[in-house]
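Justification of resources, computational component.

The compute hours requested in this renewal are based largely on the per-chain cost of generating structure records like the one below. Each record pairs the submitted sequence with a full structure-token output. That output is archived, and it is also reused by downstream analysis tasks.
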Amino acid sequence: MKVRNYIASSLLALAALAACSEADEKVAFGVDSNTVSIDAVGGTRKFKVSASENWVATSTVPWITVSPANGKGSQECSLIIDSAISISPRNGLVRITKVDNRAEYQQISVEQEGFDYAITLDQPSVNIENYASLDKRYFDVRVKTNVDFDVKVTEKGSDIEPNWVKIGEYTVDLNHGDRPREVTLRINWGINSMPQERNAEISFVPTKESQITEDMLAQNDILTINQNAAEEITEGRSGDSIALLGIARSLEVWSSDWESSGERMDNWDGVTLWEEGMEGYTPEKKGRVRSAQFVMFSAKEGIPFEVQYLTAAEELKFYSNVNTFQLNLSTGEYICKLTQLKRLTIGAYGLTELHEDFTNLKNLEYLDLGSNNFEQIPDVINPKNFSKLHVLRMANNQRRLIYDLSNSIATKFGGLYEHTKYSSQNDSFGEFPSWLLRWEPGVVSTPEGEETVTGLDTLILSVNYLQGPIPDFEDDDSVPVYTEVPDSLTNNNGESILITEKVKCVMPQLKMFAINLNRLTGALPKWILYHPALDWWDPYILLFTQEGKNEKGELAGFSNVPANLNDYYKAFPKKELAGGFEDGETGSDSGSESGTLR
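The structure output for this chain reads:
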């Protein structure tokens, strides 16, 4: 009985299997969709294959992939469609074929849109601070485009081009079709020194070469830049303290402890405040900064914008920047706003130029631009622009130390001569910067009604690559000769060699003249050998001493350096001697070379 039941059950199971197989064979071969549409970006679309047998899927175009590409029976599949490469639409076919009957197949038509001409951004606006260190004053923007473009920057709401936004170099590469490419723009921004927010817009205009007009663009994004306002610095003592801290921060002064010390500004190192009794004091200056110095810092640009708020300062000093020889900096515009300045030092800073507004500093009496990278003395430094200037120091303007110019392949060394190339036409190098020697003295009246001599009385040009002879002005009728001299410059007969020898009257007001350790050659002119202040110049140290060779290979040095100053003191026996002579001693008959040394 049990055996019969088992056999019956088996027969029923076999019958059920046969019924299922027969049902599978009856599944109609097909797909659930014969058309697929997709945008230019591409992507994945699902479809279902209905079948009872083995099948295989193929694409007529390489930009469509089917996964899985084959199977047995009904199955869900994916169409993987690449991004378009042009602005034109494109079509492709996917064929699903029975393996055992190639004549029986199903097709899916794929239609893909082309890309529109467009320039799009990953962000529509950027907010930036008013200040950051130079190496952080930029941001990057990713632009997607299938159009070559130019960049246009304007102040928001106007056609004015702002000077605080600069676009870095970029390249739009469309060599592989019209698919949008991602271009990264580096946008550099400047400091906002004003207490108002400012805004700029960056728009993208198709280039003329692209032959695409703006009305052909389906999308053309505009980038808005919003910059925060600066902290308002009011004129006065509190404003001065904020300005000093801002300058120290911007310069990255190494050892500034003004902020961390907790001390009042009165006790800050390197800062002097106005107090009653000081020359030039007025009640509104009380407690404000009279002078300040910033030493040892890491500046990569001109004097910081906060300096413009030190409107009571008479003297400022900036000295010792890092890697000075690598820098090519301008003073910047902000220092040029301090028209009240009398003394200014910007030394070892990396300067190669003065800002065009530097001539605003007409009250300067002392200017030190030493140890920078100037290749010539800026011609704006002249008596017309700086009539009150007494001291000009421009020593050591050289990027590197070269002892012999004739063995160097360089053609311009940062020297302060007018021409740097040898001229075969006149067989000479460029002249000494002669316009400085034409700085004639002037006379002004003091508030007390007294007259005082003005004009450049100290000129320091030591340790530069000056070449050629010192101008003698002998054939220059525009330079006068001495016609009258004080009694101290006459001999015992009341005569003066300055008049009898018709010595050129060149900068008679010079109290200090230093041109040592240059590459000067030729003869010393008479106006130097008999200058009223020659013995006070320490000439054997600060004038006569030259070094190395010039570009022609000539040994630097003057051909007529006197062995001592005996003849000089014989010409001026009544002259006060330079140096520490005892009362009653004279230099005319005492071997007075030692009298030239202070």
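The helical segments are 2-25, 237-251, 258-261, 497-500, 526-529, 539-542, 566-571. The longest strand covers residues 90-98.
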